[in-house]
Amino acid sequence: MRYLFVAIIGLVFGAAAAGAIVYFNPLLDKSATMPAATDRVLRYSLPGQVLDFAVGEDAQLFGQDAGDDALWEDTIHRAAVLGLVLNDGSNQPVAVASRLLTTSPRSDLLLSGMLVSDDWLVTIPNEGTFYVHADSNVWPFLKEKLVPVWYLDRPWIGPAEYWPTVGPSADDTANVVGLTGAFRGSAGSAVEHYEVTSLDPARDAALANGELYLNLPGPRVAAQ
Amino acid sequence: MKIVFVLALLIGFAGTLAGAHYVPGLEHTRLPSQTAVVANGGRAEEFVIRLPIDRIAATNGESGGLRSLGASAMALPSQFAAEPLLVEHFKVRDSAGNVIGVAARHWDGTADSTATWSVLIPSRGALVMSANGEKRDALDTELRSRGYSAGRSWNGDARVSMTQDGGGVVNTGTGEFEGLIGIYTETWTVAAVDEDGRVSGTIELATVTSRL
Predict the structure, then answer these.
(1) CA pair distance A44, B133, nearest whole angstrom
(2) Would you call B118 an interface residue with chain A, using a CB distance cutoff of 8 Å?
(3) What is the ipTM of this complex?
(4) Which of A169, A208, B148, B210 could form a disulfide linkage to A46, CB 3.0–4.6 angstroms apart?
């Protein structure tokens, strides 16, 4: 009995030491850098510009009710579908985006963080449609804000800024592929930035502003 | 006793790090792919959407017609209400009828009418396709030509091809679909429309792909 007790204590101490290493591991805070130049910035605010949000039962970060549109099937219960209106630099709606998100099996809490695969389909009326494939590291947000504030009742201190894009390109940017209209045949990169302005579990409110910094080389995209 | 403690400490330490490295539980459930080899060595795969149950949401613009009804409405800002733009979100099934992913379809009727699909199958990756799409109100027009009128239920068998010029192309993909080229066709088959305009039927996305 005494040996069992000592073994349990040893396991707990060992796990706690490893947990501390994971928690303070600087490799997990990997994020994109602000792009030096960009062709266009598309902006959104949450929840104000959300058109639709369907979320899988195991992807409910905020513990929200998945509602009637729940993605409950085993194959998609860690996925989410988000419809967004995107604004231009003058804060006027210019585009509609569909984001298909799912947790990435390439997540690694020793080396790369908690990755989300984020596929955007963006249509700008009168210009065309393009696709963005991003790997986003949500670990810094989870560690610094969501878990402490939302689940551990720590006070909110903010706003908090994040550059979650970490790939799949080698320079930690997302891949962009032009599909139709003026974007057809073009390819480029993108980086997402968002600022969480409020997290209030008591009022069930999470507010954020996001930006997609888009680089599509060539004359096809007019600078804003 | 000291040895037991040190061994347990090491096991706890290594086990936690291994768990952090492999992050158990993030693997997606995968069903066998319903694919077939075609004559040229490519791979044929059909994705199916059953309406109305697989429709997640659709935008409520003027150009949506029946397709904007019977789903969670995505309320477009007033600037877009009159634009020829329709965004639809669906669950996607394999040809055996199992839900395997989610999809977004964007139809843009400005200039050349285009339709683009992003299909995400969490266990396999994303497939992105585009085509010269259907004309505005193509589904509504076909149904009206077969006797449907608004506010009344309708039963029948209407097939509408939503891809022009013989089909669309596979533009890009991720994961298992990375590096694929190919073509696809999109066909809507409507069996019924109820009094509220809710469409019952299927959307078939038939793809033929091969490696670059």
Answers:
(1) 28
(2) yes
(3) 0.90
(4) A208
Distance of CA A26 to the CA centre of its chain: 19
Sequence ranges of the domains in chain A: 31-215
Q: Does residue B20 lie in a domain region?
A: no
Rounded Cα distance, B52 and B74, in Å: 16
Cβ of B156: how many Cβ atoms within 10 Å? 12
Please indicate whether residue B114 or residue A108 has the higher confidence score (pLDDT).
Answer: B114
B71 pLDDT band (50/70/90 cuts)? low
**Closest CA–CA distance from residue B146 to any residue of chain A (Å):** 32
Domain with B186 in it: what CATH number? 2.40.480
B117 in the Ramachandran plot: left (φ > 0), alpha (ψ -120 to 50) or beta?
A: beta
Contact B14, B172 (CB under 8 A): no
Q: Does A12 touch chain B (CB under 8 A)?
A: yes
Give, in order, the Cα–Cα distances in Å from B100 to each of A12, A191, B30, B33, B175: 39, 29, 8, 10, 15
First to last CA, chain B: 62
Query: CB–CB of B122 and A75 under 8 A?
Result: yes
